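WARN retry 2 of 3 for item q-0093 after timeout on previous attempt; input resubmitted unchanged.
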Amino acid sequence: MMIDIQGIRALVGRPLTEQEQRHIAWINGWDREARESFTGLIKAAYWNGAKEGGETVKASVSGMTEQDIKQFAEALAIRYKQVVDADLASKIACINDPTPENASREAEAFAQYRFYSGMLDIIPIEIRRVFNDAYNDLSGYEVVG
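OK item q-0093 returned
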């Protein structure tokens, strides 16, 4: 899994400096196990800090109407299906034509898939239920979670 610069940018809420982008590119040059270990430490630090700080890591639906929840969950299901489909297509392309470009596309697609899969763990159950129903309608199979 490569570290996705655009995903990091979205998480920190600001553009990354040139130095930060160079550091991410440097880390992306590490072997897969080292990258996963590094990103795992960052995620663990985030979750532990949120827990110790008493923050609520899970999102809340307070202030959302049933219609808001439905629209959000359905849009999320559509995007998640696109991400899952892109991940599958990139895997097939890499198997059929194992070029460095296809391997890079596969790594990027898998990073997006992992991001969205991880996000499903933090959405409120009220949204997750509607998401699961919408995703099942789109894909013909059930999401566990």
